[in-house]
Design brief:
single chain, alpha+beta, Adenine-n6-DNA-methyltransferase TaqI, Chain A, domain 2, Type I restriction modification DNA specificity domain-containing protein, Restrct_endonuc_typeI_TRD, DNA binding
Amino acid sequence: MINSGLDNRGIKGRTDRPARVFPANTITVDFWGNAYYRDFAYKMATHNHVFSLAGSVIKNRLVGLYLESALSKLRSLFSYNNMATWNKLKALEISLPTVEHANSNHQYTVDDIDFQYMREYIAELEQECIAELEHSRIVELGVYLKAAGLEDYELTDEDREILFTSMISVSDENRVLESNRKNRQVRLKNFTLEDLFESSTGDIDLQQKDVNGKGCFLINSGLDNRGIKGRTDRPARVFPANTITVDFWGNAYYRDFAYKMATHNHVFSLAGSVIKNRLVGLYLESALSKLRSLFSYNNMATWNKLKALEISLPVTADNDIDFEYMKCYILAIEKLTIADAVRYKDKVITTMKQIVAA
């Protein structure tokens, strides 16, 4: 069903309610002036003034897409206060390529439209789009691998063993969760946040107005952009990289860069020797993700509340934190994530090629 709007090109979903079915190889225009070529049959809503444009001029998909582009100017002509109607639309003009006539006085008509040029132009754009997608796939893969410090994203036998390792909650009097690593199980131990971290807060009440694109990143509360509000060079305490921030909602993020923090929204910087490196930091961030379910606007996180909370971490046979396991686990997860991104990109490229070949 087609309705008005930009989202999903006006496609609202499917319906089997009896209604007029419009054929493929037509163009819809809604009351905002959004024009889209349709290569499928469809039904249309009536309350929002959507029109189906048909005609022999729409020779095929490539010509239809060219016409869609030519009609894109309609968006600048219509609005909620000036809705498109067929009486308004039919008098408007669009410019299309024509086959040049030897007679300079020739009066050009629809019969002179250069459909071959239109087809070739869109086909060339589609091939350029495929080339750009393939190039960006290579570039993005390189960026992902570099950020993760990896040579490739192929899982090793060790990676697979790590990913299939399970954690069994069988606690003893020392609150150690026992399991056998050799049987693809790992031992866990609970630690309070006070055992693991030291907490610090900012010294200046930095606000959004202080963000000017210069200096250090400013961290505040919130999920958007992982709490990063921008850069500020206003003098304030600078917290080092390789630390973790926790805001009053319980959002915890590992930081691999130096930063400043707002004070009015209770953001804490957690530091400690337990944060060995980026990979361990990301594992700890994941372990701290449960904090979001514990805090809210009516129950804000404070260090007094946080420090008594516990998280479970893998330990060795000597009950020391197993940093090697944490590092290997995150590396394996990063490989899986990169593989998912590559598969998605490959699917986009394959789909684009199928559309072009149709």
